[in-house]
Every structure is written in C-alpha cells, then in structure tokens.
Amino acid sequence: VTSPCAAAAATGTPLARRDDVLSILPGTLPTDELAARLAGTDAAVVLKLGRTLPSVRDAIARAGATDRSLLVERASGERERWSRLDEVDRDVPYMSLVLVAGRPTTRTRPGPGRLTVVGLGPAGPDWLTPEARAALADADVLVGYATYLARIAPRRGQRRLETGNGAELDRARDALDLAAGGDRVAVVSSGDPGIFAMAAAVFEVAEEGGHDTIDVVVLAGLSAMQAVAGRVGAPLGHDFCVISLSDRLKPAAIIERRLEAAGAGDLVVALYNPASRTRRAVLARAREILLGHRPPDTPVVVARAVGSPDEQVSLTTLGTVDLDRIDMRTLVIVGSSQTRLVRRTGRPPQVYTPRHYPAGR
Ligand code: SAH
What we know:
This protein is of the alpha/beta class. The protein has helices at 3-11, 31-39, 53-62, 130-138, 146-149, 168-180, 198-207, 224-232, 252-264, 281-291, and strands at 22-26, 43-47, 69-73, 81-84, 96-100, 114-119, 141-145, 159-163, 184-189, 215-219, 233-234, 240-244, 268-272, 299-304, 312-317, 330-334, 340-344, 347-352. The strands form four sheets. A five-stranded mixed beta sheet has the order 1-2-5-3-4, sandwiched between helices. A five-stranded parallel beta sheet has the order 8-7-9-6-10, sandwiched between helices. Strands 12-13-16-14-15 form a five-stranded mixed beta sheet, with helices on both faces. The structure holds S-adenosyl-L-homocysteine. S-adenosyl-L-homocysteine binds next to helix 8, strand 14 and strand 16.
C-alpha cells in the first residue's frame, strides 16, 4: 500500500474522480516548478515534506489549491494524524504528505462567470503551458474554432461551442454572453491568444458595452514564431517584426507599407498567414519588396505545421524560396542583413541573428 493510498483511506478523500489527472510530486522541487505542476493537474499528492513545508505551502497557495489540501502524517501508522493544510502551524515530520483533492465537480457560482482566453501553443501537449491546461480543465464551456477544440481532450460534463474559422467577433460575443450567464468560459486560440487571435476580438466586443461585469483574463501561450525559431536556431536574436499577410482584416496597401518599412529598418520579419489557396499575390509582393532591401542570399525559414506529425521545416534564401509550397499552416521568417547561416558537417544547417549590430550600417 503506497502512502498516497493510505492517506486517501485515512482521510476518506478520493485521490481522483472520473477523468481527473492525479500527479505525485516531490516537495523538494523548486517552488516555481511545483506551483506550475500543481496548476496543471487536478489532484496531487506532494511527498517529501519536513523542511520543504513552507515552499510546498507557498506553491499550493499559488496554484489556488490551499482549501483543497490536507496534511497527513504517518498514514496507516500508529501515530497517524491529519488536518487541513491551512490549520497546520507546526513542523511536520518527513513521514507526511499533502493530499490535494481534485476540484469539486459542482460549483455554486454567484454572479457573472469568467472568461479566460487561452493559447494552446502551436501544436502538441509540450507547448501547452500548465497554466493553460489548468484553465481548460476548469472551464464549464470551451469556445473556439473546431480545429483548435479538436486538440483538447474531451472532459465529461464540459460543453463545447464549436465555430467555423473567421467570424471572430461573433465567437467572442457568444463567449461573453455565456460568461454573463454564469459559466466559466475558456475561449481557445492557437499559439498565443494575443497574437492575431481571439484575445483582441474579445476586448473589441466587450468594449461595445454590456459586458463590463465580466472578468476577462488572457493567458499567454507560446507563439508559432517562437516554436519555429527554436527549430532552426535563433533567427529572432535581434530586432524583428511580425506581420500578418492576410488582407482579410486590413487593406493590402497597408501590408505593403509595413513590409517596406520592415525592409528599410533591416528588421528580421516573421510572416504569419502568408498565403491561402486563393490569396497568393501578397506573398509574392512581400518577397519582391524585401528583395528591394536585402540580397537574394538572405536566409529564409519556411516552417509548416511545426510540432504536428506533418511538420516540415526548411532553410532557403530570399532569392530561391519556393512560394508555391507556402500555405496557411506555414510561417515564414525572413532574415535581416545580419542573419547568418551556420553550415555543419553531417547535420542540417542552423540560422541565427547576432545580438550585436555593426556600427555605421
Ligand atoms: N495566435 C497564433 C497565430 C494565429 S495566425 C500564434 O501566436 O501562433 C495563424 C498563423 O500562425 C498561420 O497562418 C501560420 O502562419 C502560423 N502558425 C500557427 N501555428 C503554426 C505551426 N504549428 N507551424 C507553423 N505556423 C503556424
């Protein structure tokens, strides 16, 4: 019988219910990591107490789990005893643990709900932050584009409002209305929710009025450019800018003006939404404009579906880049005049932009 099981039996507390995730964590972890792991799980047992108690207590408080936490000493032993963690005001022996019960399944919820805008990262569980994972687990309703919702494991009792792509403002309105009705709503976006994504749409609709009692919380996510940069080296090591090539929400003329400015400023440029099946011209124009400012051998990163099984990442140059292979699942990073390609024997090349910029350029 393991100590977590003995502690659960002693306190009459189920370790986990239904699809709760249970984590067993050593109290010797650094406080920050412990807090992040607690935020990313439903139920937990923290072992190895004693001197670590203040740090464990702090991490549990930061994960908002103090009122679900019990301290159990010598479970199943002769001197077994237990109490709520917040009632413990003494040193505890090494033979003790904290049992963090799963979140209660029924909540009484006075007043309006809460709307959290959550970034899922570019793909896969490794790029989903523990904070985002906890918010998804905690929500009554998930709202988002069906493709993104498909990345989240279903959870019994949790509703989903799937929407098509586009229509961000309608989706934001639906989400705010649900929150006004008392639900805890998580609106999901890929990558970071504040970068060409739902967070701004929610604020836009909230500003129209009628929703000012709702607490809108935005949880940062890893953006596609960061994941792509990491795959190839450090192309964003110096000043860079980010431009969406979609002309759905802005005129093509402004895109051209910004590309010109990025070219003139010798910034590394990350291009989001580079081209769709029908929208190809802006991408060709972007290449032309940047070629007006930097040489054809400027490194270019073309990264498609990074983090998914379809991932394809290639290093090419502004002069030779094959634009036909670029679609909406692709992110393009165009180097500055300083971005360098590092050739390696027997391994693929890498690319980086140095921290220093030469004087007089
Ligand atoms: N909020 C997202 C961006 C949404 S715009 C973020 O922060 O990443 C959608 C664009 O993001 C796509 O057209 C593509 O350019 C880029 N993108 C998103 N996920 C990607 C991935 N896994 N690989 C490559 N590009 C990606």
